Amino acid sequence: MRLESCYITGFGRLCDLKYDFKPGMNKILEENGWGKTTFSVFLKSMFYGLPYAPRRKELTEREHYEPWSGGIYGGSLTFTTDKGSYRIERTFGKKDSDDTFTLIDTSTGRESTDYSEKVGEELFGVDRESYERSIFIPQLSIQASMTDSLNAKMGNLQAARDDINQFDAALKRVEDAKKEYLRNSQINPGKLTKIRESILESKAQVEEIPLLT
After folding, report:
1. Which of 122, 135, 149, 128 is nearest to 51 (CA)?
2. Strands 74-81 and 2-11
3. pLDDT by residue (tens digit) across 152-191?
4. Is residue 207 classed as helix, strand or coil in its secondary structure?
5. Residue 143: what pLDDT?
6. Of 122, 103, 123, whose CA–CA distance to 113 is shortest?
7. With the CA atoms of 58, 63, 65 and 70 taken in that order, what torsion angle do they form, in degrees rounded to the nearest 10?
8. How many C-alpha atoms does 20 have within 13 Å on its Cβ side?
9. How many other C-beta atoms can be found within 10 angstroms of the C-beta atom of residue 159?
10. Taking the model in full, what pTM does it have?
11. Of 72, 147, 154, 205, which one's alpha carbon is 20 to 30 angstroms from that of 136?
């Protein structure tokens, strides 16, 4: 996947801003207060949307990045994958039910269903939290912890999200087999007890066989 360009209609302090990405590493060198963190959060929001939570004492991310100048809250992001070139168009409201999402195939100019509103998860194979811990790392939020989703991705287990559940099921089968072999019960002894009894019985039968002279 490669970023092509973005247009910020209104997002925090950034308004009516177009940015074209170049091949390779892109560096944004601007003075403090320009909006570099806001720009990175905008990119994340295009892929993952903005989380909604009932009003709390502190501002939510959705509230924090409402356009300072008012107007439309959102923008667009154009990217290319092996499937083609697409443009994500999102706007945000007071709550997630007011948000809009459209995916445009730039080669035809028509809406596409190749990716859904969860385009970030579909492209990167990780959820929002894991994205924030890996691809997107705010300067003040650097952490060394891992998420289950990120662990699964790095362990090449992301082919199915239930891999972790499959591991738990496999572990349970091993524990059940262990109990089956080591069960200590006179009525229903375990398999190892039966094997030991069979060995002792065989040894006794061998001892009863007369020595060949």
Report:
1. 128
2. antiparallel
3. 666 665 555 556 667 777 778 888 877 777 777 777 777 7
4. helix
5. 58
6. 103
7. -140
8. 1
9. 9
10. 0.65
11. 72
